[in-house]
Amino acid sequence: MSRTRTEGPLARTAMAFVLAGGRGSRLMELTDKRAKPAVFFGGKSRIIDFALSNALNSGVRRVAVATQYKAHSLIRHLQRGWNFLRPERNESFDILPASQRVSEHNWYLGTADAVYQNIDIIEDLAPRHIVILAGDHVYKMDYEVMLQQHLDSGAGVTVSCMTVPREEARGFGVMAVDASGRITEFLEKPADPPGMPGDPARSLASMGIYVFETRMLVAQLRRDAADPASAHDFGKDIIPRMVADGQAQAHRFEASVVRSAAETAPYWRDVGTVDAYWEANIDLTDVVPPLDIFDHDWPIWTYAEVVPPAKFVHDLAGRRGEAISSLVSGGCIVSGATARRSLLCTGVRLHSYARVDGAVLLPQVDVGRHARLANVVVDRGVRIPAGLVVGEDPVADARRFRRTEKGVCLITQAMLDKLAA
């Protein structure tokens, strides 16, 4: 039964619970010092800013973020950039480190346990619905649309999903649905994902976004917590159990994706590998990028550092400060160097005669004179020595740095220090 429109947006009575405790080990050294949701993206944002901005833009004003692995960088970012939600306006923003609230011996055991250990906080806020979100994906989505479908369907849980190539579905929860959208089967990260009826080359994959009525979620979490055989995970335990009970409904991402006039297709990325992270950042340098971060109607909020404008200096043949098809953040100085199809985060310095092409340079990277970098990700604060060449000799690159199957090199200061030793 449809709700009465005079009740107002469902998002205003909902709470977003963001799961941001994962390490993201496939990002290799990028997550040695920070959790995956805290990794920089798009020049000035962090990955978690997309889930949080979606919640805020959807009208959700009560947010909780569960952290665990090396959370200091993430917590500092959240405190600086997301502290504007005010209790006196019926808003809240809670950071929930793993604090052994339920057991003195257990940290968060799984995604479901991370929510279960904070049931008292949820019940104190008493939201009507809970939107469970992953804090490590890049996309734009209106959760109000999903909340409305959930209420209209009467489902116990609504799971957001999208179609992906079958060979890529091994890393997802894969589902089958009937004509009404009810989920009839759910397999978590199957070795041989089933194809879709009529389209065997593609599978229907869970996005890790769930909507529950709060009372239903609390009941499911308490049941799961009492099961010693459970992994206490939404994808492995909670969702399959509710599918078996006929309580799970699918929500198609296409119905709630937010697109500007410039975006031609729904955009969602799990930037969980170095290759995927590099590709998603470099995508933004396209003339018409697949993800429009310039969309004023759906802004991506973040902590805005106070820095001077980007600066380009020198205008001599072979020593001209320029950037072609690139994103250059505030505080950068391109001094007689060239950036091509690259993304420069805040405070990057390119010195004379340096050349970067297909480079994702995190904040405060310093690239020395005559250095040439191609297809690289350089970690925060790294000082690239003068004359270093990366991206032209695969054998030398693999010996010195972390080189991926697609030829992207990840460079950290520790790697460079070993070369100098």
How would you describe the overall organization of this protein?
This protein is an alpha/beta fold. The protein is 22% helix and 28% strand. The protein contains ten helices and 29 strands. The protein has helices at residues 48-58, 72-81, 111-116, 119-125, 143-153, 214-225, 234-244, 274-283, 394-400, 413-420; strands spanning 14-19, 40-41, 45-46, 62-67, 92-97, 129-134, 137-139, 157-165, 173-177, 183-188, 202-213, 248-252, 268-270, 311-313, 315-316, 319-320, 322-324, 327-328, 333-335, 338-340, 343-344, 349-350, 355-361, 366-367, 372-378, 383-384, 389-390, 402-403, 409-411. The strands form six sheets. Strands 1, 4, 5, 6, 8, 9, 10, 11 and 12 form a nine-stranded mixed sheet that branches. The radius of gyration is 23 Å and the shape is globular. The model is unreliable at 1-6 (pLDDT under 50). Residues 308-411 form the Glucose-1-phosphate adenylyltransferase/Bifunctional protein GlmU-like C-terminal hexapeptide domain. It is an enzyme of class 2 (transferase). Residues 16-285 form the Nucleotidyl transferase domain. Alpha-D-glucose 1-phosphate binds at residues 108, 173, 188-189, 206. It catalyses: alpha-D-glucose 1-phosphate + ATP + H(+) = ADP-alpha-D-glucose + diphosphate.
